[in-house]
Amino acid sequence: MDLTVVTYVIYLLISIGLTVWVARTLSRNGRVFIGDVLQDNEKLADAVNQLLVVGFYLVNIGFVTLYLRSSEEIDTARGLFEALSVKLGVVLLVLGVMHLGNVYALNKMRRRGVMERQQTPPVAPQGWTAPTGA
């Protein structure tokens, strides 16, 4: 078997495995943020979380497949490892940027939710006071 094909297979297995692991981690832990923002509306929080995960998969797996092609012929074990290190390094950087972007978006949503809750009075108004003077 050609070493270029072996490199492609190893690259795909590792990259997609890393993508699935990061997506599951984001989904599990991001659910807490979304639940807090949406004030424990479970169905809506689950739906938003699932949409974020699907978008994460589409972007990352799309990038992984677009980045699959190699312009060099790989004919030695050293070449295989060098090609894999470059490709996997770029994939890890992209996954990291996507992860940080998701965390930033979730934190921004959470902060907005906290600010909105702080604007509502803790106790409903119980009456009114007539203006004085006049």
Write a structural description.
The protein has 134 residues and is mainly α. The protein has 3 helices and no strands. The longest helix has 43 residues, at 77-119. It is rod-shaped.
Question: Which key terms come to mind for this protein?
Answer:
134 residues
Class by alpha and beta content:
mainly alpha
Helix content estimate? over 70%
Gap between N and C termini: 96 Å
Strand count, sense and barrel status of the largest sheet are: none
Q: How many strands? A: 0
Give the helix tally.
Answer: 3
Which band does the percent of strand residues land in? under 5%
Radius of gyration, in angstroms, nearest whole number: 24 Å
Topology:
Elements: H1 3-37, H2 42-66, H3 77-119
Short characterization:
Helix content is 77%, strand content 0%. It has helices at 3-37, 42-66, 77-119.
